[in-house]
Amino acid sequence: MKEIRTAVLASGAGSNFKALVKGDTGPGRIHILLTDRPDAGALVLADELGIEGRCLYPGPYRTKFSRDEERNWADLLLDMGIELVCLAGFMRIIKGPILEAFPGRVMNIHPSLLPSFPGLDAQGQAFRYGVKVTGCTVHYVDLGTDTGPIILQESVPVLPGDSRDSLAKRILEKEHLVYPLAVKAHCEGRLSTDGRHVYIRDTAGAV
Ligand code: GRF
Q1: Helix ranges restricted to H, 2-131
Q2: Is the pTM here over 0.70, yes or no?
Q3: Residue of the nearest CA to atom 9 in ligand 1?
Q4: Which of 169, 174, 194, 204 has the most other CB atoms within 10 Å of its CB?
């Protein structure tokens, strides 16, 4: 099967980036790590993992791109022959040029069972709310914040004695399992989207 060049965009520690590099993503191959933060742990990991890592200027805003800078990022990704973009702890809202350049080909992982607890600190939101079950979601990215069609979800129980951080740690372990699975299914051409519904064919072709 043809290799699918994949880029990961991360702003933080990069553990999901590492899980994508180390995990079974089928024909998906992580080609580059892009970050908006020179101090991102993901850059150090990229070096250790032998993957090219670059920090690019995102524009003057703290949590969004300027349109020109997002256009530059999109052009770079296109020039590199990237076919799939995976957001992994990327703390900047993308809305314009990257989505236009990669329609239906930008994924994100979020640490809650969407549509519950979108936005920042989803683990803390869920913990404080007192839910008994939370988890993580891999979804395609659309114009909203954490609103795109859901690809895969994995649940995580909230246990007696949990803190926000112990819960977040167990969610992260599930994230590392589920993100490579979603990338693999996408890169094998086993995902199809109809409105909000993403259908997953198994390797034998059954939905
Ligand atoms: C993860 O919890 C991810 O779901 C969220 O940000 C965190 C990133 O962690 N979007 P890491 O940088 O991949 O370790």
Answers
A1: 15-22, 41-49, 67-79, 97-101, 122-129
A2: yes
A3: 89
A4: 174
